[in-house]
Amino acid sequence: MPIFIDRRLNPKDKSLGNRQRFLHRVRAELKRSVQEQIRAGKIADADGEHSVSLPAKGTSEPSFRDARDSGRRQHVLPGNKHFSPGDKMPKPGQGGGGAGSSPGLKESEDDFRFVLSREEVLDLFFEDLELPDMVKLNLKEILAFKSRRAGFSASGSPTNISVARTMRNSLGRRIALQRPKRAEVEAILAELARIEAEGTEPARARAAALRAELERLERRRKVIAFVDPVDIRFNRFDAQPLPNAKAVMFCLMDVSGSMGEREKDLAKRFFVLLHLFLKRRYDRTDIVFIRHTHTAQEVDEETFFYSTQSGGTVVSTALEEMQSIIAKRYPSREWNIYAAQASDGDNLASDSERCLGMLDSEIMRLCQYFAYVEIIDERESEIFGSTDNGTSLWRSYLAVKERWPNFDMSRIARAADIYPVFRQLFTRQPAQQRSLGRRR
Amino acid sequence: MTRAASRPGLLFSGSDWNFATLSHAYDVIEAVAKEELGLDIYPVQMEVISSEQMLDAYSSIGMPLMYRHWSFGKHFLHHELLYRKGGRGLAYEIVINSDPCIVYLMEENTMALQALVTAHAALGHNHFFKNNYLFRQWTDADAILGYLDFAKSYISRCEEKHGVAAVEAVLDAAHALMDQGVFRYRRPPRLSSEKQREGLRERLEYEERSYNDLWRTLPRQADGAKAAAENADLIAERKKALNLPEENLLYFLEKTSLILEPWQREILRIVRVIAQYFYPQRQTQVMNEGCATFVHYTVMNALFDRGRIGEGAMLEILRSHSNVVFQPGFDDPRFSGINPYALGLDMMQDIRRIVTEPTAEDRDWFPEIAGSGDWRTVLLDAWANHRDESFIRQYLSPALIRKWRLFVLSDAANESFYSVASIHNERGYERIRSTLAQRYDIGANHTDIQVVDVDLLGQRHLRLQHKVRDGIVLDSGSCDATLRHVQRLWGYEVSLQGVDAQTGSTIYERSSSGLTE
């Protein structure tokens, strides 16, 4: 008779520590891989698991081992069909040189791919954005759940026993199975005592009958338990997700020739971050991509990031397009509207005023938040720093900023600059939460 | 359906299992195995695990307890990937050479498979662990789990005290030398008991506590001639004490390195002990698996003959069995070397045939056992007293060579073709047999690197020597990286000289001083 141990319920993830050590070791390589994937992938996909591949050499474990392409060896192989001693056959895959792999002995260590969890991906992604830990936690937080009563169940933890329900079941069962009550037993005992005190012959016969009856009742009481395991009920709790509203995020970007690869990459990171933020807060987030030159159109993500158009720059066309999409598809009663605009600041001189008017009169009333990022050259960043002068678009937007608290703007030259825009967004969070509550 | 199929006498029906059926099946299987084969086993402890836990066990080289290291994480990811993709199934079981013998069963297995696994691991492997001379002499079945427990907690304490990175550096270096961390020719010392180790640690801690820097500043006696004479004595004494040449690099570094802290030495020792523990397993692959497969095959058939296993379950068992012992030919795309399960089982069944129904050829080749009639005794004796190399050298019969159509292929790196040296004919049997046996001789195949000289009082230059056999040199990239690891542990220059095993001439020389970090 062997000893059996059921280990299935042991804590899982025994090798989690090893995994972390491994990820730490190949961190640089992983980071490059994840950044590349986020750059190439869709905005919405940044928030999820990623499969990454690592070259085997970075993680090799060296040892003194034989070189495959040296020396003389003898192999014993099964399944000879037509060879005789002395037969020769050419080595595969080479033209008479020295090296050749031995049959059946393949190099086993290839590059290998594996899947990173969402948390691990975000950790790597955030690394050079210089987000404070609090914000990272906020972004990585999973949807909140609240436990709510949800009836009763037959299993659960002892602390959750529902006494009332258990006793009700017990009572029902006792009645159905006719469990003798204590009063009945006591009545018989009293009767017995009375008769025994009499001591007459018929009383003795009656006493014997009563004793038999008493024994039967006692046995029955023993067999039919007062509270049986089948009676026990537990309060059941269901984890209910806290309700969240819907949000739509408008990505507006200038795609005229002046926006190069670097500018687009920075803009994309900004959009990704905003999307992560929205996705955490809302059950459903839609993304609308609007690109513009001197005309604007709604496009898919692929076109948005990867195709350029020639033409001048008229920002108001994008705002118009956004306005019409809101009117058509995203009534502001039902949707929380966020907008992020990225541009290099060029605009037709007379158009900036028009933008200002549109934002003032209509758009800012609809939007929860409007973020404008101007992507500038790293050298320019020193000149422009935090001064108020700049392109005409920048100056007009400054006016909007003064009037509307939910408008933010910032200049970005490096990946590390992206965060300040968010800090402003997060510091105003309590006020926003209240307004969200009302809208729902 | 299940009810309809169940007949009295059947051990189980249907594919579901529970602990009662498992236990009952084990009892019957054990009885049958003892009766049919006369096995002698450790008590058994069966543990049911999930597939994820099986992956965990894979990555920590099959042991239930293991210290933490990134390479285990890497192996875990690798196995997990193969498993998720469906590229490779998981083993049905893992068995650990300990007393009591621990067998892991996967919860996904059907009852028929659980019975098969019980016979295979809990009886076959278990018997082999308990009786084979290598395991008896070289490993310590009742101490290994305790030791691993100690190793795990010791290393995690070191990580707390000295930092993960420092511990990882030592482990990396030690792992690189794991293959050279084994005593091949002399018996390793027994694992010291928990008490002794505790005492040793306490003493180290006491020394650390009571260390006083003042002692270092005491003026030393300096007296020219007298000191020189003393030095000469010291050199001779030290060389003798170092016991050179030394094949176990980890042992040598642990005992001799001048730069290691006590805890670093202890880590080297842990890695070395684990390497030593696995050394017999690597020498008895064919026999161990062959023995287990032979046992499960014999026992399952016996149970079927007695009507204890239904036809359906038996078919399932046979299907798994034939998957396990599948051996494709060398030109088959699925070929990946000789399957130790197949070779072991075939040889053991062949021995049974030779003992019970010998041909004239068998009488010629195996006069001692052919026709002796008692195959159980012959097999029990073979299991107890052989390792792969000697087993093949002793028992591979011409009949089996013909059945497998074995042939020997010569492969010289400087030629552009392979040539067939021997095939399964009268002239080839001996050669095939000895070549195959040679392939399984770890002593002969293993990269032979030894410490030959060290000048402890001068530059502390550590010299290693690699005996090059058949012109097979080391993979240069990996070799340089490993030399760097040796230098990390030794602290001073390390050089490796490749010397031809036959002629003694130097083939190559590498030194850690020329390598860039």
What do you see in this structure?
By secondary structure, chain A is α/β, with parallel strands linked by helices. Chain A folds into three domains: 16-56 and 110-126, no CATH class; 158-235, no CATH class; 246-439, 3-Layer(aba) Sandwich (Rossmann fold). Chain A has 15 helices and 13 strands. In chain A, the strands form three sheets. Chain A has a six-stranded mixed β-sheet with strand order 10-9-8-11-12-13, with helices on both faces. In chain A, strand 9 (284-292) and strand 10 form a beta hairpin. In chain A, helix 6 packs antiparallel against helix 7 and helix 10 (315-329) packs parallel to helix 11. Chain A is flat and about 125 Å long. The two termini of chain A are 64 Å apart. A four-stranded mixed β-sheet of chain B has the order 6-7-8-9, covered by helices on one side. Chain B has a three-stranded mixed β-sheet with strand order 1-3-2. Chain B has a two-stranded antiparallel ribbon with strand order 4-5. With 517 residues, chain B is of the alpha/beta class. Chain B contains 22 helices and nine strands. Chain B is 56% helix and 11% strand. The relative contact order of chain B is 0.10. Among the domains of chain B are: 2-132 and 284-315, no CATH class; 325-443, no CATH class. In chain B, helix 13 packs across helix 15 (340-356). The interface between A and B is large, with 68 and 99 residues.
In short:
The complex is a heterodimer of chains A (440) and B (517). Helices cover 44% and strands 20% of the residues of chain A. With 440 residues, chain A is an alpha/beta fold.
